[in-house]
Amino acid sequence: MADTLTIKRTSGSASAFIPMDALRSSGPEYSKLVDISRCIGCKGCEVACKEWNELQSEPTANFGSYQSHKDLTPNTWLLMRFNEIEVGENLQWLIKKDACLHCEEPGCLYACPAPGAIVQYTNGIVDFNQENCIGCQYCVTGCPFDIPRYSARTKTVSKCNMCIDRVEAGLEPACVKTCPTNAISWGSKRDMLAKADKAVETLKQRGFQHATVYDPSGVGGTHMMYVVPHGDRLADYSLPTDPTASPAPLTALNFLKRIGAYLFGFSLVGALGHLLAFGQESPDEHE
Amino acid sequence: MASLAATFGRGAMTNHWKDIKNTDVVLVMGANPAENHPCGFKWAVEARDTRGAKLLTIDPRFTRTSAVADRHMQIRPGSDIAVLGGLIRHILENDLQHTDYVAAHTNASFIVGSAFGFQDGLFSGFDEAASGYDKTSWEYERGPDGYVRRDPTLQHPRCVFQLLKNHYSRYTPDVVAQIAGCTADEFLAMAEIICSTGTADRVGTIMYAVGWTMHTVGSQIIRTAAILQLLLGNIGRPGGGINALRGHANVQGATDHAIVAALLPGYLKVPLPQQATLADHVRDSTPEPLAPGSVNYWANYSKFLVSQLKSWFGEHATGANDYAYDHLPKQVSDATWLTMWDQAHQGRLEGFVTLGFNPLLAGPDVPRLLQAMSNLKWKVVIDPFMLDTAEFWKAPGMNPAEIDTEVLYLPSSHWIERDGSFTNSGRWAQWKEQAVPPPLGVEPDTWILSELFWRVKELYQQEGGAYDAPIQHLTWDYLNPRLPTTVELAEEINGRDLSSGRLLSSFGQLADDGSTASGNWIYTGSYTEEGNQMARRGTADPTGLGMHHDWAFAWPANRRVLYNRASADAGGRPWDATRAGIAWNGREWIGDVPDYGRTTPPDAAGAFIMTAEGVARLFSTDLVDGPLSEHYEPVESPVRNPLHESVPINPTIEWYGGIRETLATDGDDFPYACTVYRVVEREHFVTSNVPRLVETMPDFFVELPEGLAREKQIENGGQVRVWSKRGSVQGTAIVTRRIKPLQVDGRTVWTVGIPVHWGFVGLTQGSMANLLTPFVGDANTRCPEFKSFLVNVERADVETA
What was the pLDDT predicted at A270? Predict the structure, then answer.
């Protein structure tokens, strides 16, 4: 059952820009499937995510919603978002599991200048290695789904790692394991696509004419897909209609990165000068 | 549960969780299983997606269950009987009942005496002074053979079928709309789906919970639903039933073992003072069969009770002393929840022991409860966590200097820290193992209760006392008498043959001659010579219906669907061969464990073995407030009762002293209907100690409809104050479109919703919802009316820190 992780691409290296087709490899390619029509918004996945990944509980306050946090945070990689909309005369309470989609073409990885800080494995998981992260937050800009979150305390960026340690041991991610209504499934991308198609068919029979599978091609498809009952109302689920990420536009970014490196060099010289002139400051206690 | 027993003979969920996957229609009403039973609810979603079942919710709010339902209808809190009565009328007016089922398995053909009647909101036999009914006029008409007279054509004007038709004819769609606030069209669209299951090839289920029980008409709401399901032929069938969802993992187990006042374990009765001898008590508790072919299983009452007495008093229970019948306390007055606290309020209760329970937050009218608790001399709180109940003197507004109550807090182990069994809603007793040891110095409940017993017994031995025999004679035969193991207790509950010492395998082996002992007859078979049946984990499912007979133990007799004889027609053929409960193969019944003798032929006995009629009761004299149900308003209602203005509320409510003064009257300004409920992130009060769960739902809140919030200038996320005549709460406003304004009886009624999970002890503090609720309960069970009362609302401007 154990699954050996094979690196497909890493950030800040030549492999980041190898065309995707050349990287297609044998071995299991996984996907999570979130069937929104089966989700009851119990937040069991939210808690399981924190438990397994040992993420700190954060002080929260009700802000006029069933939603626990206003937004994802460095310690909240998974957030159930609640939204009330009207579809025709019917009220719909949209409840969506928000977390990293693990893009086949990961905008975060393309944007990342730090070697080895973002790694994509052949099984589809895109993981952040905080020890290599330089805190530049380019990944935040690069992500078309607004998922990674920067911690001012650790000066690094975090997001869902698909419970990579569980997956490596042949287990499903913690959120999948805990879901009481089987709204979240786990398996090969192919199996999950088949399951998603079937779910969409069921939804159409139930009258959801616009039901769809969310697996956007602009990012090469994702390793967390959604079955969306109201496929014509993606924005109401806070899902971008046409997200994109590809290595190509990053040429410009690379140019900027190079300039950045020069600027960094200059700033180092400046800092050294500052240190020599004014001495060392005491560490700032503020967070 | 009282109303299920009144209708079917047993007070329990008829089917089980996994069986819900076999249904065609799921009506969720008086429940919110997505939030309160999320794991079991998966089977409703499964039925929706694999069978194309329709999932419906009827509720004062659009809940997380509604979020995944096919259709939702909003109603006013407390209007359930009007809606269900309307469904019954819809069936009878349009001939949608499952006719063969009704004829074979219900008392539709039974003829009621000519004195029975219903007029102006009252059934015959009402005694104004006693606020109760003399039920004599509700009795059946008997033939010369002593059995009830019946009319199989269902045409006799006094047969139950015609009485039903007549009684519910008033609940037209327009009347339903007028009372409940939905539109007649909305109601009819719902009715069309719900009433589509009155055929052999279709079956529907109802999931309900405390959203029905917590009303002054709670038992009658459930009775109405039971009548509905009987007319549609949905009881006893896989995929059918009326499924009472129990709150905690072990509420069903607690109920089975006599948590309800006036009951002994296994639904035997606490004797009454006038029942001076065992024979008196057995005679009063053993019904006479009312129809030929009635198995009338309660005729075995004496076997269950004598075995229980043998289990409790051992060698001290003999034929010569009525098996120590005198040792059982006799009930002189009501001892239910509200009555206990009323006694305390009057200063007539000295002490109180609470175990695994937080009564201060769980009861209605917290200001009254606080006064009552202050009157106690002592209070013992046994719980894994410090509770608001233990620290009631710290409640907002209390002055500890004025309270003399001595509180003893005993930390006990959590269920995670001990082995034992849980009995789930579907009556499956499942054994579990200890997951982690308790913290140092923390003892299990069994040790605490055992010590309590020994120390009381030792005091009696040293000092003597009035009638100490029940304590002195109580059996306590455990390897370590100071710490019984849960295995020893399970064996004792199961019972033994006293001559051989062997564990029994079926309650059919119990005798009333003192040769057997059993702590609770319905659990006989749960721990046998073959071992702990509750610990079985076989996953085989030969029927494909999810019965799993090798998984754990389901009472009674490992039966998975109660009343399963009714899943087949008069000849024993299943109504639906693809969903057969049991089937007669000419020699014996195959399928589920039959609710019937395995080789009893189909025509030999009635399907409902626990009723004296042998069939299920559409008309039942068991409840105190009527043999049929009737819509009465909540004691606090924003509108009149259009059916009978002179009898607006349940006329048989028990009123405690000083309570009427705590209710809103016409002159008061409490215009909004309010209901309290639970959310999935929290479980009652205990989860206020769990950081992860507090994080997911941190603060006390109030749900308000958009229009009302606008009118009151209350902003989403702002602070709002809600008050009733009894108390006041404040919290964060969740302004929502999930609660709409309703047009009720010609005026707009707004509904406000409040969750119950907060108190003043725990990781986060918040208002106690029950500061608002009224101290009045159901006429039968006295379960408080938490679900419907009146409030006012205003914006609360607090200084932000």
Answer: 61
The whole-angstrom separation of Cα A84 and Cα A236 is: 9
Chain B interface test: which of A181, A185, A208 (most B C-beta within 10 Å) = A181
Q: What is residue B26's three-state secondary structure? A: strand
Q: Would you list the DSSP string of B613-628?
A: TSSB-SS-S-STT-SS
Token pair 């929502």 is found at B736
Q: How many CB pairs under 8 A join A and B?
A: 115
Cβ distance A213 to A226 under 8 Å? yes
Of B34, B48, B52, the CB nearest to A40: B34
Between the alpha carbon of residue A129 and those of residues A74, A116, B640, the distances in Å are: 14, 7, 67
CA angle at A201 for the pair A197 and A205, rounded to the nearest 5°? 170
Q: How many CB atoms lie within 10 A of CB A170?
A: 9
As for the ipTM of the complex, it is 0.95
Q: Which two tokens stand for residue B788?
A: 């419907």
Give the residue from chain B lying closest to A81, CA to CA. Answer: B696
Contact B575, B237 (CB under 8 A): yes
Q: How far apart are CA B773 and CA B791, in angstroms?
A: 10
For chain B, percent of residues with pLDDT exceeding 90 = 95
What is the end-to-end Cα distance of chain B in Å, rounded?
48
d(CA B788, CA B782): 15
Task: Outline where B392-496 has alpha helix (H).
Answer: 445-463, 469-473, 486-494
Which pLDDT tens digit goes with each residue over B590-621? Answer: 999 998 889 999 999 999 999 999 999 999 99
What is the distance, to the nearest Å, from the Cα of residue B782 to the centroid of all Cα atoms in its chain?
Answer: 11
* Contact (Cβ atoms closer than 8 angstroms) between residue B275 and residue B268: no
Torsions phi, psi for B517 (to 5 deg): -130, 140
Residue B465 Cα distances to A94, A220, B118, angstroms: 66, 84, 53
Residue type, B276: A
Q: What is the pLDDT of residue B739?
A: 98
Q: Nearest 5 degrees, angle CA B311-CA B317-CA B321?
A: 150
Nearest 5 degrees, angle CA B314-CA B320-CA B325? 60
Look at A91 and B62 and tell me if their CB atoms are within 8 Å: yes
Tell me the angle at which helices B366-374 and B337-345 cross, rounded to the nearest 10 degrees. 60
Nearest Cα residue to B570 out of B182, B204, B107, B102: B102
- Interchain pair B697, A68: CB under 8 A: yes
| DSSP calls for B157-206 | TTBHHHHHHHHHTT--HHHHHHHH-S-HHHHHHHHHHHGGG-STT--EEE
Q: Which tokens go with B404?
A: 């003399």
User: B-chain residues within 8 Å CB-CB of A39?
Assistant: 68
Q: Can you read off the two tokens belonging to residue A277?
A: 């002139």
Q: How many CB atoms lie within 10 A of CB A220?
A: 15
- Strands B54-59 and A156-158, how do they pair? unpaired
pLDDT band at A283 (very low <50, low <70, confident <90, very high): very low
3 state SS for B735-762: EECCCCCEEECCEEECEEEEECCCCCCC
Using CA atoms, how far apart are residues B68 and B305, in angstroms rounded to an integer? 47
* B chain contacts of residue A197, beta-carbon cutoff 8 Å: none
Alpha-carbon span B722 to B744, nearest angstrom: 22
Alpha-carbon Rg of chain A, whole angstroms?
A: 21
DSSP-derived secondary structure for B85-99:
HHHHHHHHHTT-S-H
Angle at B290 between CA B285 and CA B296, to 5 degrees: 55
Four-residue CA torsion sign, B84, B86, B89, B90: negative
Average pLDDT of the residues of chain A: 88
C-alpha dist (Å) from residue B185 to B28, B75, B182: 19, 13, 8
